[in-house]
């Protein structure tokens, strides 16, 4: 810890602070931990692709701990995936090793095979055929373990499954599913009726775990943890719950067999390539590389987490308790950004009471759209005095 008189605070570095998980971390450290000061330079200031950026930052700032939740886009090519997800993570860990400080790394269930109750020791075999994302995440897991054994790297690795949370700038994973359902881009069920279970990770709880790790370093040193909700969830149930909250007609309850979905996906890839060749830019969603996962169970054991000293800050929360607020948040966001091709909230009779509540921000947007003069007058009257709070 930096214990100079001027700054007795513990100083942390979060890499990937503008992302989904990183955003929750920054908010938590800003609002809940006055004893910890966290910096989160963006990738223009500290790029994991640039070893010099890492060396300069560590030389200048000498952080007391590092959390790495950076990744390159999931569909990135081999070089970028290697440089950011693997080499960058390892260089960060080397810097942490040099300062002998904790390094907390976020990993993914993409390193695991399908199966039930998978443990922290399970992982896919490292093969050339893995996706760039899975390969780079798996190689990182392996090298961090090796660095712990060889040099005593003080690391903890947190494996996340399907992550849910607000403020995600990309449309991926569960958000892509939600988007496609609401935008009526999923006419039928791309899963089996029963028995396809997955683990879910609540992004808002991750900071509590990381803070706990920092306070109880010895216990978590050199360990991997699955950070997932205790109960796995049926994919069909998630899809049908979103559908019912929004009172949508699709996806119809016709379950498309995997082989048919796969052939359809391959056909779409072919059509898109053709369109791209004649100048129309299009691509299938990145998640379609995970199509197989829609049909195969993958549940992660959370026994190790349960048996640790960490106490879940909100054990009642599940993907189902959070869905109404997530739908509300993302619908507003995607509508603001004009991303929907067919959905407009005006045309829908939303059923869930949480989603029906009038949003004051929406009312404000209406005034901005239709009565700018009225808005300007009211701001001039009440909203332009000096911000005395600063003094
Ligand atoms: N989201 C999920 O569904 C999910 C599921 C399982 C596991 N995970 C894991 O959780 C972690 C966080 O994922 P996320 O969804 O929060 O990520 P995200 O929202 O895509 O954010 C990625 C972050 O990485 C940063 N980044 C990208 N390239 C960089 C570079 N060259 N140097 C430094 N930073 C760079 C970005 O910063 P800039 O904006 O400044 O470029 C951004 O802050 C990852 O390890 C991921 O594997 C996520």
Would you give an account of this structure?
- It is a single chain.
- With 391 residues, the protein is of the alpha/beta class.
- The protein folds into 3 domains: 1-161 and 201-229, NAD(P)-binding Rossmann-like Domain (Rossmann fold, 3-Layer(aba) Sandwich); 167-198 and 233-296 and 318-351, no CATH class; 356-385, no CATH class.
- It is 43% helix and 14% strand.
- The chain contains 14 helices and 14 strands.
- The strands form 5 sheets. Strands 2-1-3-4-6-11 form a 6-stranded parallel beta sheet, with helices on both faces. Strands 5-14 form a two-stranded parallel ribbon.
- Helix 3 (78-99) links the parallel strand 3 and strand 4 (103-108).
- The chain is globular, with a radius of gyration of 23 Å.
- The mean pLDDT is 90.
- NADP nicotinamide-adenine-dinucleotide phosphate is lined by residues 15-22, 42-43, 47-49, 69-72, 84, 88, 106, 108, 137, 160, 163, 170, 172-173.
Question: What key attributes describe this structure?
Answer:
single chain, 391 residues, alpha/beta, Rossmann fold, 3 domains, 6-stranded parallel β-sheet, two-stranded parallel ribbon, 14 strands, 43% helix, globular, binds NADP nicotinamide-adenine-dinucleotide phosphate
Tell me briefly what this model is.
With 391 residues, the protein is α/β, with parallel strands linked by helices.
- Give the termini separation: 31 Å
Give the overall shape, derived from the CA principal axes.
globular
Beta-strand content: 5-15%
Number of helical elements? 14
How many domains?
3
The CATH C-level class name of the largest domain? Alpha Beta
Class per helix and strand makeup? alpha/beta
Biggest pleated sheet: 6 strands, parallel
Strand arrangement in the largest pleated sheet: 2-1-3-4-6-11
Mean pLDDT: 90
Q: CATH homologous superfamily of the largest domain? A: NAD(P)-binding Rossmann-like Domain
Give the C-alpha Rg. 23 Å
Q: What hetero molecules are in the model?
A: NADP nicotinamide-adenine-dinucleotide phosphate
Reported by name, the CATH topology of the largest domain is Rossmann fold
Tell me the CATH architecture of the largest domain: 3-Layer(aba) Sandwich
What is the number of beta strands?
14
Spans of at least 5 consecutive residues whose pLDDT stays below 50 are: none
Helix content: 40-55%
The helix/strand order is: EHEHEHEEHEEHEEEHHEEHEHEHHHHH
